[in-house]
Specification:
Length: 283
């Protein structure tokens, strides 16, 4: 157990020593979740978090403490929880919103009431992550290569295009971690109180591998029927590009399967992951 792993929890639970002990004193090795290397073994780490510390305070290399929420049943409500602000200035409670939307502002940073006005007034919507549809195709193609029997299943049956894209979104979610959120007030999740003003991340990729929500979650099943993954978020911040990304994913993967052996496409991958938030291929 390292100081870095324990101290954020202890600071937050100073007056609640029992809760801090049960959720934070665990045998997790220290992890730099912001590094590309972390992505390769991330799912094992997330499984430990879900089992032992579903709400976990972790110090980032920047020195900031991030609260990681890892279980599906906690991440899904968190993504639409109005007690969490997308803009950290809103968490302080001094202003209802701190930036006017425009070309330089992302829609995803807006919240009601500013968000309602932006929608109504037709404010230009910034594309949050223009590369994520590409990451769906890249991650998806690599996943198919890793599961050749599923690749052949999809190649043989185009009726699976829809469920296949949903499963690929679940299995390696292009947005690994939600965008930043800040607690406007102390918030209790799974028995842990996250302090006011704290940085909170919903671990989308962890929720999408949660065994309580998905049967055999580490198995790729391109025909999976009950698949309520969180890859596009939830609530008012639900991805505006989701229909486009789904369509692009279905068309691109089908074309790849029809026109070329996938292995010729996936040459030169050296690493996974660009940042804390994004899972992608790097060449
Ligand atoms: C596979 C591709 C994509 C994935 C997995 C994805 C995922 C997500 C997720 C998880 C969120 C919510 C983040 C949060 O609540 O913290 C989001 C929001 C958003 N996405 Fe996407 N996205 C994709 C493609 C796109 C595309 C192609 C566009 C634009 C054409 C787009 C535009 C947006 C915008 C504007 C938001 C903010 C919505 C809001 O706050 O109202 N996304 N996306």
């Amino acid at each position: 157990m390292t100081t870095a792993m324990v101290s954020p929890c202890e600071a937050a639970f100073d007056s609640r020593r029992k809760a801090a002990t049960s959720y934070c004193r665990m045998a997790l090795p220290p992890a730099d979740i912001t590094s590309s290397d972390f992505k390769a073994g991330a799912y094992g780490y997330y499984a430990k978090l879900r089992a032992e510390a579903p709400v976990h305070g972790l110090r980032l290399p920047s020195g900031q403490t991030a609260w990681l929420v890892s279980r599906y049943d906690d991440v899904a409500p968190l993504l639409k929880d109005a007690r969490l602000a997308k803009d950290r200035h809103n968490a302080a409670g001094s202003r209802p919103f701190s930036r006017l939307p425009g070309m330089l502002g992302f829609m995803q940073a807006l919240e009601p009431p500013a968000r309602g006005r932006a929608d109504r007034d037709g404010v230009p919507v910034g594309c949050g992550w223009p590369r994520d549809d590409g990451n769906l195709i890249g991650n998806g193609a690599l996943t198919l290569l890793q599961f050749p029997e599923q690749l052949e299943r999809l190649r043989a049956d185009s009726r699976l295009d829809g469920t296949a894209v949903e499963e690929l979104l679940r299995f390696h979610s292009p947005i690994e971690v939600s965008t930043e959120r800040y607690a406007r007030e102390p918030i209790e999740i799974a028995g842990v109180t996250i302090p006011s003003g704290a940085l909170v991340y919903g671990l989308i990729s962890s929720a999408n591998r949660d065994e309580t929500q998905f049967d055999d979650p580490d198995r790729l099943d391109l025909g999976r029927e009950r698949n309520r993954h969180l890859a596009f978020g939830q609530g008012i911040h639900y991805c505006l590009g989701a229909p486009l990304a789904r369509l692009e994913g279905q068309i691109a993967l089908r074309r790849l399967l029809e026109r070329m052996p996938l292995s010729t496409v996936i040459i030169g991958i050296t690493a996974l992951g660009l940042s804390l938030l994004i899972r992608s291929l790097q060449s």
